Amino acid sequence: LAAMGEPSMDPAISAADSPAQEDSLFSMMDVFLISLITGLFTYWFFFRKKKEEVPDLPKMQSVAAPVRDSSFIEKMKKTGRNIVVFYGSQTGTAEEFANRLSKDAHRYGLRGMAADPEEYDLSDLSRLSEIDKSLAVFCMATYGEGDPTDNAQDFYDWLQEADADLSGLRFAVFGLGNKTYEHFNAMGKYVDKRLEELGAQRIFELGLGDDDGNLEEDFITWREQFWPAVCEHFGVEATGEESSIRQYELVVHTDVNMNKVYTGEMGRLKSYENQKPPFDAKNPFLAQVTENRKLNEGGERHLMHLELDISNSKIRYESGDHVAVYPANDSSLVNQIGEILGTDLDTIMSLNNLDEESNKKHPFPCPTSYRTALTFYLDITNPPRTNVLYELAQYATDAGEQERLRKMASSAAEGKALYLSWVVEARRNILAILQDMPSLRPPIDHLCELLPRLQARYYSIASSSKVHPNSIHICAVTVEYETKTGRLNKGVATNWLKNKVPEQNGSSSLVPMYVRKSQFRLPFKPSTPVIMIGPGTGIAPFIGFIQERAWLKQQGKEVGETVLYYGCRREREDYLYREELARFQKEGVLTQLHVAFSRDQAEKVYVQHLLKKNKENIWKLVNEGMAHIYVCGDARNMARDVQNTFYEIVSEFGSMSQPQAVDYVKKLMTKGRYSLDVWS
């Protein structure tokens, strides 16, 4: 068969026998045919071998590699881990907690790894039982109005659609939330409930951390009960190893090309010199500040209006979106840390992960200088968490100071109380702790390893892209207060923005930023009435809303009632955007303007009081006009008081009981007719 099939592949061979004389060379023909068959067989053998080698090539090129890379199971098997801690984190706290839990594992003879769900295929959870003594822990923050964080969105979508059998999976969940928000810890609660529905086994109860209270204490309290439950479940014991374990090693660069050194970029090296869209959290746009003016006429506070130029950035935004800004720490704080620790802040260094398999090679962009790290990458103004105090304690040469640090990092009631009063309530940042503990002088590289990342700050955009397509406006108040120790603490971002003075081509007025999409949107139909409630800087998105409604009116569209309830302290002091609002009212766009001046009379008047005063009109707009309600500002008091006021109005004019009124307002929220953009 081989001889019959092969000649067509090489016609030169069949052509070679044509001159032969059949009658006179018969015996030679036999020899020739045998030789030919042998030759063809040999040719076929080598050709066949080549064909058989072809399937081996994909193996060499490792076509399946991307799938393996996205499999946390394969990674755990390869590195001998049995505990994986996933984090859904928007500001870095959940990631920090996940890292702490994964480091804890070694104390119980287990090995853990922290993992970003965005980087892995979470359907592999069904395979975790392949690993002995395996456990999945989820540190899940809730963002906005009960939403998952950006990096947990795909995981959330998968959970909603999944019909996987997770009966072999053992899990535990710790949620990070804030009780001032309507949907407290919604993401943590959902993950905990959904994993159980899919058959997974919960080995410890859901933890609910409250950032409005003491999130750190909530986490520690949960953690100290979580590990004994793990030990009992797997039949393991604590090894007693409480030693400090470094996650990164220091490399000092004495001879380095400065073009390879990070100077504040968030992702790609030299991205601030060579800007390329699209712009996002890892690739912010450097926007020029074109305007920075003080909005208030008096008082001790500084309220400001900034305009950022986004020309040629291809950045698009809509009214109601948020602008994220990457600030820089005050240089005087950075210098003081350097002086106290006796460090040359301009030393170029890298902190390299000792775990070579980790996706996170460095705690922040490296190589860089200590000055850059402390200025752009690390949070040096917030009170440090207990794990930082625990790790730093070993460097205190005074026994009393070392004991105090260890006590505050412990789970004992006395230690928790000391941490709460001495660190949290006194608002002691790392510099204050170093100043108040003269014997505590840690190596600066270990301090840089321990401090959390400096996070972007979000502001509600105070402009409409229909009117200002090439600029984004910010309305903010500088944060400044005196602590119990007599120190003056300043908000990082607002004080940094305050000093951004517009200049001609001046680098000092550049702001790294990107836009984060929001669900805070004007109604699809311009004719739908809107009721906007926003005291203080909560007015920001409503300036954008009113600008857009004015633009729509200019386009000949029918625009519905536009009602604003605004509040400030004093009419002559901090009435923000007074001229603009008066103009909008004169033009007939802003159909109702109600302003509460809380301190201009003996009794304080707030926006909810004005809502009650106009309750009949409010009910008519909501019930008959199908108005959309928007609330922006303080979550702790204002948003809650406003919501309670709506319950009262609905109950009175809708002839409903209190539970029915609550249900009515909740349904408005579900339908997107009652929207919140609040902060605490």
Automatic annotation (TrEMBL):
GO biological process: response to hormone
Domain FAD-binding FR-type residues, every copy: 282-523
KW Flavoprotein (keyword) present: yes
Gene3D superfamilies in the cross-refs: 3.40.50.360, NADPH-cytochrome p450 Reductase, Chain A, domain 3, Nucleotide-binding domain of ferredoxin-NADP reductase (FNR) module, Translation factors
Listed CDD domains: CYPOR (cd06204)
Cellular component GO terms, alphabetical: cytosol
GO molecular function: flavin adenine dinucleotide binding; FMN binding; NADPH-hemoprotein reductase activity
Top-rank taxon: Eukaryota
Domain Flavodoxin-like: from-to ranges: 83-227
EC numbers on record: 1.6.2.4
Signal peptide stretch: none
Transmembrane segments: 25-46
Full protein name: NADPH--hemoprotein reductase
Annotated organism of origin: Helopsaltes ochotensis
Gene: Por
